[in-house]
Design a protein that fits this description.
With 759 residues, this protein is mainly β. The protein contains three helices and 43 strands. It has a 22-stranded antiparallel β-barrel.
């Protein structure tokens, strides 16, 4: 039944009201001052109570026929944050308003029509896309949302059930980025050796056109129950699913359309930073050549699934789903017109036929929906071109001067060297030939219909009862992913020319079987009621994820690989080796307990619960950049890569701290007639563990620090590691492996209080 995904599914059910009026009012209070401070925090917390108010009300409009349900939430949070390294305090926070209305109508017995509408207004304050040195990089985005859903459920016969649903979602990004298009104030700058820390201006453009991400879904599903004498019973589900995602986006990367990547580092004087712009630093010009129209990424599907109970001991699950993808990008080009079948097969053996011990096995293929990030690769509409220029002028702020140039003074000098006097200009002086170019719609092409990525999953399971008070389940899972998408630039793809006469190496976006990712996991879960007032439970996952592609980032979602780009300039052995991936978190465990403290009924009810969480650390290795051009005879490329990635050490060489924490909550309730009053204090991370969750992973080479490291031939030479200026080929950045900000640590101890009433 499930489709358009290669991961998990979450089903949410909301209340519908009933023949008796009921409702609730709840307030949750927290305070930045009630939380322990993380290491590296140097600012005082904000001593302000942040309330979250929630309310519900439901009941009959016409008993047994029409019901309503209303819900609302208002949350306002304010806290103190600080900039990276400069430790400038600033206020960060969020205001969230959420309103929901739902109506349910039953005109005839076993026929139900439901309609619901949700409106969310969300506003952030003091937001940064990347860690920032200054307040100029913060901004206050707004992300309003609307969701409409209409659902019909009907029992047509004693064996046939019908469901129909229509839903529509609207999601908008507003004010997301810079508030100025000025050449100086609107140019984002990044300190690359420190981990791409931003300063001078936010990433993206907040005063440009808002971005819309909308979708529609139509679902028709029938369920038929069939009972036979010789072949058991069948619960057959079949239907049609039509999902359309639409995006209208003009992806401006900064207010001015320029960004500067500083590889010389920065000079810090108190709370001020000054860029050191040397010949390893570069300017990127991001013009949007063509205005965007709405993309249209559609998946329509047919499915059938039979839950077949052959006997009390043996049952099967047999299903097949057909998905047809058609994806039209922001200029109207069809990037994908593909289809795929997804078979599912499962078998369960109940040892005694009483449900107490069951063994199961299954196979399923899950085909993902086509992603907007892939579809828009070749579109010039709304997508920025990339023109990269290395700065080759006099070093700015060389030698740690007493009065260094500010970021905007440094930009002014840099732009003067390039001959840029206003926005949306190509350099007219200095380095006027781009060192790297990507022009969507010109240098990027989708030569044939893209296939959606898929996951093949195999499972073995054993589940059962623990006497009459508990249950357990053990699952072994093996997943293999396929049909990944990569860029391809080689001698067969050719050269193209734009309207200005620039030549480019053409990149095709294609599916490839050179990329691989595999997941193997063992999941254990159990719960047991030791006695009537004490319930224990937990789960544990042991897993391993390995391959040569991650294929997604936290900021962009799914992205293409570069394994097929300029193959002469890279070797898969050191550029794309197969190894443990960054998702490879080996151990995750949760153990919980709830206890009903015995009290006389006249005193109310008191419950205490606790959960202990453990997550093993995440892995990282030593990945840097090397310039392979001196060791390759150019076979005819216009702009061979100035650098390619090199894994000096395996991804699994290093690991952050293992994380554990204990959370405790109390829940006290008391009835005053029909009204229940409750109070719930909570403490997270009771023992104030301070383990490290993120570290700096900067690797230095001759590419990033030209004068400090020696060049080497990566095809024939094993590189040497050492400090700057020692003749070594690579070295660790000065903060490698170290936490660099309060956010590098796990969440601290936090206290919050909820209270309210239900009726």
């Amino acid at each position: 039944v499930y489709g358009r995904f290669t991961g998990g599914v979450v089903n949410a059910i909301t209340k519908s009201g009933g023949n008796v009026f009921s409702g609730s009012v709840r307030a949750t209070l927290d305070n930045d001052n009630w939380a322990s401070q993380r290491p590296l925090t140097t600012v005082e917390p904000t001593d302000k109570v942040n309330p979250t108010y929630e309310g519900t009300l439901g009941g009959p409009i016409w008993k047994d026929k029409i019901w309503f349900f209303l819900a609302g939430r208002y949350a306002e949070r304010e806290a103190t944050a600080q900039t990276r390294s400069t430790n400038i305090p600033y206020t960060t926070g969020n205001t969230n308003q959420r309103w929901e209305a739902k109506g349910t109508f039953t005109p005839f017995q076993n026929q139900t029509l439901t309609a619901s509408y949700m409106n969310i207004q969300n506003a952030d304050q003091g937001f940064t896309f990347r860690p920032a040195y200054d307040l100029a990089s913060t901004f206050s985005p707004h992300t309003p949302q609307e969701l409409l859903a209409v659902n019909y459920n009907g029992v047509l016969t004693d064996k046939f059930f019908l469901e129909a649903q229509y839903s529509q979602r609207k999601y908008t990004f507003k004010d997301y980025g810079a508030s100025s298009k000025d050449l100086l104030a609107g140019t984002a700058m990044y300190d690359m050796p420190a981990g791409q820390i931003s300063f001078n201006s936010p990433t993206f453009c907040g005063i440009c056109k808002p971005e819309n991400r909308d979708n529609e879904n139509i679902l028709l599903k029938g369920t038929y129950f069939l009972s036979t004498k010789g072949l058991g019973s069948h619960n057959i589900v079949f239907g049609y699913d039509d999902f359309t995602g639409q995006v209208l986006s003009e992806n401006y990367q900064s207010g001015s359309n320029y960004s500067v990547y500083v590889w010389g580092g920065v000079i810090q004087q108190g709370q001020d930073v000054f860029p050191v712009i040397d010949n390893s630093s570069y300017l990127v010009y991001w013009p949007i050549i063509q205005q965007a129209q709405k993309s249209d990424v559609r998946t329509y599907s047919f499915f059938v699934n039979d839950s077949w109970r052959l006997s009390n001991n043996l049952s099967f699950n047999i299903g097949l789903r057909y998905d047809k993808n058609k994806a039209v990008d922001s200029r109207g080009f069809t990037a994908s017109d593909d289809d795929a079948f997804s078979p599912r097969l499962g078998v369960t053996w109940d040892l005694k036929g009483d449900g107490r011990f069951r063994v199961g096995a299954s196979y399923a293929r899950y085909v993902g929906a086509m992603q907007e990030n892939y579809v828009g690769q070749s579109s010039s509409a709304g997508q920025p071109a990339i023109y990269l220029y290395y700065y080759e002028g006099p070093v700015i702020n060389e030698g740690d001067p007493a009065n260094p140039l500010t970021p905007q003074q440094a930009l002014e000098q840099m732009y003067r060297w390039f001959g840029i006097t206003g926005t949306n200009q190509f350099p007219s002086a200095g380095n006027t030939s781009p060192d790297y170019i990507v022009v969507p719609g010109v240098s990027v092409n989708i030569p044939q219909s893209l296939k959606s990525t898929y996951t093949d999953e195999f499972t073995l399971s054993f589940a059962g009862a623990l006497s009459t008070r508990g249950n357990f389940r053990v699952d072994g899972v093996y997943r293999e992913f396929g049909d990944f998408i990569s860029g391809q630039t080689d001698t067969t793809t050719g050269i193209v020319t734009d309207s200005l006469g620039y030549e480019y190496d053409l990149q095709n976006v294609v599916n490839t079987d050179l990329l691989e990712r595999t997941y193997v996991g063992l999941n254990l879960q159990a719960s047991y009621r030791l006695f009537d007032s004490l319930n224990l439970g937990g789960n544990y996952t042991r897993s391993h994820t390995y391959g040569n592609v991650v294929n997604e980032t936290s900021g962009s979602g799914p992205v293409t690989s570069g394994i097929l780009d300029y193959p002469e300039y890279r070797d898969v052995a050191w550029n794309n080796p197969s190894m443990a991936l960054t998702q490879d978190q080996r151990h995750r465990a949760r153990v919980y307990a709830t206890y009903d403290i015995p009290l006389p009924k006249v005193l109310g009810a008191l419950n205490v619960s606790a959960i202990w969480q453990f997550d093993s650390g995440t892995i990282y290795g030593a990945n840097g950049s090397v310039d392979t051009r001196p060791y390759v005879t150019n076979p005819g490329y216009v702009t061979p890569p100035t650098s390619v990635g090199y894994w000096f050490l395996d991804r699994g060489t290093f690991k952050t701290d293992d994380i554990n924490r204990t959370d405790v909550s109390l829940n006290y309730s008391y009835f005053l007639g029909p009204v229940e009053i409750f109070v719930q204090p909570q403490v997270q991370n009771v023992f104030m563990n301070e383990h490290v969750t993120g570290v700096n992973t900067t690797i230095e080479t001759r590419v990033t620090r030209r004068n400090d490291y020696a060049a080497f031939n990566p095809f024939t030479t094993t590189p040497t590691q050492g400090a700057r200026g020692t003749g070594a080929n690579w070295g660790y950045g000065p903060q490698f492996g170290q936490p660099t900000a309060p956010s590098s640590y796990q969440a601290p101890r936090v206290f919050r209080l909820s209270m309210g009433l239900r009726f």
